């Protein structure tokens, strides 16, 4: 059974930075397409970025140039470095596989506010 756990969310001021982490059991991140999603109240879950292979990386236009996705295969951990945060980045952030999602974790809350 795959279990995913996100951490690192916090309250941060606009322009600030955070690094999110995702660990997993029952899964090897290096063999899967791993992505970060986010969801805000009343909106569908949005794919923010994903990474696979050696690696190949995708970013949504809304975060391109500000967010960096990375993966540490030795720790089986996925990261999302978020810089120049904006209030519209406020959301619960989740990691999961693509295209077929595993069970969702609890997510980690990111709040960008002054």
General description of the model:
By secondary structure, this protein is mostly beta strands. The chain has strands at residues 3-7, 11-12, 18-25, 33-39, 46-52, 56-59, 67-72, 77-82, 91-98, 108-112. The strands form two sheets. A six-stranded mixed β-sheet has the order 2-10-9-4-5-6, with no helix packed on it. Strands 1-3-8-7 form a four-stranded antiparallel β-sheet, with no helix packed on it. Strand 7 (67-72) and strand 8 (77-82) form a beta hairpin. The chain is globular and about 40 Å long. It starts with a strand and ends with a strand. The mean pLDDT is 96.
Topology, element by element:
Layout: E1 3-7, E2 11-12, E3 18-25, E4 33-39, E5 46-52, E6 56-59, E7 67-72, E8 77-82, E9 91-98, E10 108-112
Parallel strand pairs: 2-10
Antiparallel strand pairs: 1-3, 3-8, 4-5, 4-9, 5-6, 7-8, 9-10
In terms of DSSP E residues, the strand content is: over 45%
Q: What is the CA-atom radius of gyration, in angstroms?
A: 13 Å
Alpha plus pi helix count: 0
What general outline do the C-alpha atoms trace? Answer: globular
Task: Bin the helical content.
Answer: under 10%
Got a strand count? 10
Low-pLDDT runs = none
Strand order of the largest sheet: 2-10-9-4-5-6
Report the average pLDDT across residues.
Answer: 96
Determine the oligomeric state from the structure: single chain
State the separation between the terminal residues, measured CA to CA.
Answer: 40 Å
Q: Helix and strand string, N-terminal first? A: EEEEEEEEEE
Structural classification? mainly beta
Largest sheet: 6 strands, mixed
